[in-house]
Amino acid sequence: MVSKEKKQELTLKYGRNAKDTGYLPVQIAILTEDIESLKSHFVANKNDLHSMRGFMAKVNQRKALLNHLKETNYNLYLETIKALNIRK
Asked: What is the DSSP string of 28-57?
C-alpha cells in the first residue's frame, strides 16, 4: 500500500495542484506505485494467490483508467505513460 507521504508526492508531481487526487494521471500514478510495490512481494511469495487477486484488480483498474484517458485526452495519455514508464 502506498504511504500517505508518497501519495502526496505523486499528487504534487502529476496533479494540477496539491489536493487534486481525482485527476486521472494522479490516480494512474498511485496505482502504478502500488503495483510496483506488490511485484516485489510476489518475487518472495510466489504462492500468495489471495494477494494476486487484489494485484490483478489494481492492474485492471489502471488499464481502465488508461483507456479512459486515451479516449478523452490522447496527448495527456502519451505524457502519462511516458512519465510513468508504462509499457503500452
From this structure: HHHHHHHHHHHHHHHHH-TT-HHHHHHHHH
Q: Going residue by residue through the chain (88 aa), what tens digit of pLDDT does each one get?
A: 788 999 999 999 999 988 888 999 999 999 999 999 998 888 898 898 899 999 999 999 999 999 999 999 999 999 999 999 997 6
For residues 51 and 38, the answer to whether their CB atoms sit within 8 Å is yes
What residue ranges define each of the domains in the chain, with the CATH number in brackets?
4-84 (1.10.287.10)
pTM: 0.89
Reported residue count of the chain is 88
Comparing C-alpha atoms, which of 37, 19, 80 is closest to residue 8? 19
